Structure to design on (680 residues):
């Protein structure tokens, strides 16, 4: 069993959906990311998605693009990202961490070295947005062999035939990108999400997480009624941006503010599953 | 050395790879559309109606074939090899970009798309896209870096006259790579009605193949024209490369002629030994960006570096994947020319031939200026004069310290 399967099994037993908050490693600086990371489980994170910053995040909207820019400017690197995971694991051995990002920094690090170091640091899964099933074997095969789940993405443009391709080789959970677009922009209609989740469940036993466009506790509650997990990224990252002073440094209370917002999302997710 | 393949012209494989390069490194949302496009393009290539329409538009709208011109005074001045220009700058809109824009807009129409988008650096591809969008009555948005908008004002105005919306991109280095990020973002958001007209032999499969095929008309015409002029094939082909569309268009039909030397000229900016250049093959490493695996200018940590070139059209930190494959196979030589060498070539061509070349093409001419004097007089070179330089006069004036506002 892995941390991810354990966590989803426990949630299922309690009829709860997961809240998966996303932050970018090193945004706005290494120390602040670590403070947020440490506080996330208590604030209600069931699983954490940690972004590996990339200079050219062409699948992301402005909020996450800017966050990656802030992180890189503050000295973020793949080594530092894995440091964050390793340090987090010293205090928390149960909350799964999924690393999300683009393929190029992994190639530059070296695929085998990355897989080994990510596992040793305590990461549990990978979401690489520019590696569709056609291209992911070179990372997915060593990663799954080392115990890292490679999470596949399904989208509103996925036909049933395409879903079969996506699900063949998926592990951990399925990430349903609920709108055709970039992160942090439009939101999907609840009925569309319900239908899509049902379509995926018809073909797979993996848990289904839904992300893109979830910004409020109310939207998180809606998603939790249909799916196994709600992913919130841009809305949290925007709270980090709002908590910076005029010099781009974290103002007092930034960490508290961000964790408070996450607690609100968690309450929403919990409400979504009340009978 | 590895054995040479039987042919250099069979790529890519069915998954869009040229050796390890190329591929489809895009978000899942785009995959179904790319698979559709691949199928539709395969059908169109075999459809006589499509080919007839393309041929007719090439003839009466672009003005093809473009002439092959003996650059007599440049040849005499350099005193060695015999130099021909393939005059792509005489095409409608002033560059080779219209060749692939026409082809792609016909595919967009075939697929029922009502809107086209494009990224642009120098503005030539943006103008070409805005032109074909106007011609076929499609809505058009062109993404252009704010820095490039500033240095290519005439083309920005041209695009607007043609009815396109020019969307300034301020993220990153605000140049071509950032424009391409923004175009990809827009595409994924409007995938139902929008066709992305990519401006070079890069991006996810099938784009590098498709753009190459549409551009190959340059090399096919050159073959006929040089046979007529010289009664034989040329000894050498020379073209500039940023993404590499005009070079691929000239080279591809000749790749299996082992006697023909091919030189692709990258932009060395202030020099490939500085951090101010755009020479992805001379100074880059393998990576993945904008849907394909290729060589990129990047940091050791895999962050994309900013490119620099005086010519906006070459100012890109990557190159088409087929070029990388041809480089590793040793079939094409990748060399470079600096900003200063390109400027000198720009002026010399204007003075000797009465032709103002694009700064992009001036890089290729700069290479010829270096090598032609030492080559025999019966060494025939065809240079792809990929664009005209009217758009560059402000940049050149600034570099020369002249005031023309």
């Amino acid at each position: 069993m892995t941390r991810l399967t354990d966590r989803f099994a426990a949630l299922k037993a309690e009829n709860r959906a997961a809240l998966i908050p996303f932050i970018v490693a090193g945004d706005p600086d290494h120390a602040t990311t670590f403070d947020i990371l440490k506080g996330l489980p208590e604030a209600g994170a069931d699983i954490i998605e940690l972004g590996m910053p990339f200079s050219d995040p062409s699948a992301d909207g402005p909020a996450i693009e800017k966050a990656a820019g802030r992180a890189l400017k503050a000295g973020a690197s793949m080594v530092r990202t894995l440091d964050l995971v390793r340090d987090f694991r010293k205090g928390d051995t149960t909350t799964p961490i999924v690393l999300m990002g683009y393929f190029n920094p992994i190639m530059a690090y070296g695929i085998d070295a990355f897989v080994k170091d990510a596992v040793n640091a305590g990461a549990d899964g990978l979401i690489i947005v520019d590696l569709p099933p056609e291209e992911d074997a070179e990372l997915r095969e060593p990663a799954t062999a080392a115990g890292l789940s490679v999470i596949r993405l399904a989208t509103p443009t996925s036909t049933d035939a395409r879903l079969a391709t996506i699900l063949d080789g998926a592990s951990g959970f399925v990430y349903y990108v609920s709108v055709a677009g970039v992160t942090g922009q439009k939101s999907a209609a609840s009925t569309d999400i319900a239908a899509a989740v049902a379509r995926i469940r018809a073909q797979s036993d993996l848990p289904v997480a839904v992300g893109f466009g979830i910004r409020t506790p109310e939207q998180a509650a809606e998603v939790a009624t249909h799916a196994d997990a709600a992913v919130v990224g841009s809305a949290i990252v925007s709270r980090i941006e709002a908590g910076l002073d005029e010099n781009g440094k974290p103002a007092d209370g930034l960490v508290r503010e961000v964790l408070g917002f996450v607690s609100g999302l968690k309450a929403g997710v919990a409400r979504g599953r009340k009978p | 050395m590895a054995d040479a393949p039987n042919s250099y012209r069979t790529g890519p494989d069915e998954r869009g790879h040229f050796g390890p390069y190329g591929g489809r490194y895009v978000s899942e949302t785009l995959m179904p559309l790319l698979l559709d496009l691949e199928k539709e393009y395969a059908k169109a290539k075999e459809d006589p109606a499509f080919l007839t329409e393309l041929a007719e538009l090439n003839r009466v709208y672009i003005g093809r074939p473009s002439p092959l011109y003996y650059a007599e005074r440049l040849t005499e001045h350099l005193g060695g090899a015999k130099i021909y220009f393939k005059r792509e700058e005489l095409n409608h809109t002033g560059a080779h970009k219209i060749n692939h824009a026409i082809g792609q807009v016909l595919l967009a129409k075939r697929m029922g798309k009502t809107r086209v988008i494009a990224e642009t650096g120098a503005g030539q591809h943006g103008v070409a896209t805005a032109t074909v969008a106007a011609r076929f009555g499609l809505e058009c948005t062109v993404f252009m870096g704010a820095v490039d908008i500033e240095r290519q004002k005439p083309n920005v105005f041209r695009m607007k006259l043609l009815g396109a919306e020019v969307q300034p991109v301020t993220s990153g280095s605000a140049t071509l790579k950032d424009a391409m990020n923004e175009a990809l973002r827009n595409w994924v958001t409007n995938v139902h009605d929008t066709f992305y007209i990519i401006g070079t032999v890069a991006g996810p499969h099938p784009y590098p193949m498709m753009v190459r095929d549409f551009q190959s008309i340059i090399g096919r015409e050159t073959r006929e024209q040089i046979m007529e002029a010289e009664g034989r094939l040329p000894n050498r082909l020379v073209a500039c490369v940023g993404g590499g569309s005009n070079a691929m268009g000239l080279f591809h039909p000749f790749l299996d002629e082992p006697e023909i030397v091919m030189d692709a000229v990258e932009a060395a900016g202030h020099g490939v030994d500085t951090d101010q250049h755009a020479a992805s093959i001379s100074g880059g490493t393998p990576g993945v960006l904008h849907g394909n695996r290729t060589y990129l200018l990047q940091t050791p940590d895999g962050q994309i570096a900013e490119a620099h070139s005086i010519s906006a059209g070459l100012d890109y930190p990557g190159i088409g994947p087929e070029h990388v494959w041809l480089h590793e196979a040793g079939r094409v030589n990748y060399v470079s020319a600096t900003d200063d060498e390109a400027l000198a070539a720009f002026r010399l061509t204007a003075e000797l031939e009465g032709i103002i070349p694009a700064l992009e093409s001036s890089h290729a001419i700069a290479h010829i200026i270096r090598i032609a004097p030492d080559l025999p007089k019966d060494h025939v070179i065809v240079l792809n004069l990929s664009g005209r330089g009217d758009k560059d006069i402000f940049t050149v004036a600034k570099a020369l310290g002249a005031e023309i506002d």
